[in-house]
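Researcher: Re-running this chain for the archive, since the previous output was lost when a drive failed. Same request as before.
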Amino acid sequence: MFVELEFSTLGILGIELTLTQITDTELPKGVNSQLSEWPKIKPSGDRAVLIEFDNRIDPEVNKAVRSLAAVIETEKPSGILEVLPTYRALMVTYDPLTVAYPDLLEKIRVYLGKAQEIALPPRRVFQLPTVYGGVHGPDMQRVCEITHLPEKEVIRIYSEAHYLVYFIGFICGLAYLGGLPERIRVPRLPTPRTFVPGGSVGFAGGQANAIATDQPSGFNYIGRTFATLYDPGDFPPIPFVAGDEILFPPVSEDEALKAKGHRAEDYLL
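Model: Regenerated structure tokens:
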């Protein structure tokens, strides 16, 4: 049976394999104390460390994740192999033969302090032309029935929202989007579809997406954009990065089809 992982396949937050019992590490002076006991630093397996900033999806929490990732990528410390940002946490993979775990913790404490001061790149805004309903929105009726809203109102609410790219993951660079208005939040499909065409625009719970390639999914799809969201012949193959913003303005089917062959970058504001 197909099981869709809408949260990161790079680390399922809240389920970490902890090899040793540890207490919360002491954080550097200046690290945001408004997050109470956060952030938490924990081992995740024998080659990774998980830094959790909170247990909720929130733009400010994600900004802290992205800031720490930016500091580590700038510093390029020896032994650190990769940084993997998610909604609310950052996983750091490392080579234990190059950097010892206690030394890595000390580096992370220092980087958390530096992350308070780093300036993130300006947010880019994509405006992807989207056709809603009909064959391109197979779940529009379901959304209307659950929310008790007419189709035009669902389209208006969805298309007027601004969606923050929290992180990239899952299949072929799926952008995990937040910012879905409460009025149109509905649960996932009881049974995921085995095929949804690339460019389909949908949502479930508080998450939204525009899938980059044909794939299975249990989200509710109400429209489609035909701009290219994934190109394996390009580098990077994905147009979005965490911190970007995406809008889905409604257009006619003819207008939406004009985006075929055009890169998502062609629709930057």
